[in-house]
Amino acid sequence: MQVSDEGGGIRRSGLPRIFTYLYSTAKNLPDMEGPSEGVTMAGYGFGLPVSRLYARYFGGDLQIISMEGYGTDAYLHLSRLGDSEEPLP
Q1: Tens digit of pLDDT for each residue in 55-70?
Q2: 64 within 8 A of 73, measured Cβ to Cβ
Q3: Contact status, residue 72 vs residue 64, Cβ threshold 8 Å
Q4: If we measure between CA atoms, which residue out of 31, 24, 29, 26 comes closest to residue 7?
Q5: Which UniProt keywords apply (predicted)?
Q6: Angle, CA of 70, 2 and 15, to the nearest 5°
Q7: Which stretches of the chain are assigned E, i.e. beta strand?
């Protein structure tokens, strides 16, 4: 699965750290003391590390390719085990 955006990309110097907990590329980190504006869970540095952890737990991986000044592509690879179907309630 591929998810893309054209939000300016991630700086090349920041790419090695994107899967590090608490690392964020957000311009304004959240301030719990001040008034709430925008998305309250953005910028904490947990999204990509946790997403990659889940992908690997299920036998896959998460890869990020970014072009600074243009955008970012996220690729989620998951393995399919067997041909059996799982019954749903």
Answers
A1: 998 889 999 999 999 9
A2: yes
A3: yes
A4: 26
A5: ATP-binding, Kinase, Mitochondrion, Nucleotide-binding, Transferase
A6: 50
A7: 2-5, 61-67, 71-77
Q: State the Cα–Cα distance between residues 72 and 51, nearest whole angstrom.
A: 16
Q: Is 62 exposed, middle or buried (0-12, 13-18, 19+ CB in 10 A)?
A: buried
CA nearest to 10, candidates 64, 73, 68 = 68
What's the CA gap between 11 and 44, in Å, rounded?
18
What is the fold of 2-30+40-77? Heat Shock Protein 90 (3.30.565)
**How do residues 25-63 score in pLDDT, each as one tens digit?**
877 655 656 555 655 666 788 999 999 999 998 889 999
Q: Are 45 and 23 spatial neighbours (Cβ–Cβ below 8 Å)?
A: yes
Q: Quote the Cα angle for 9-60-40, to 5°.
A: 45
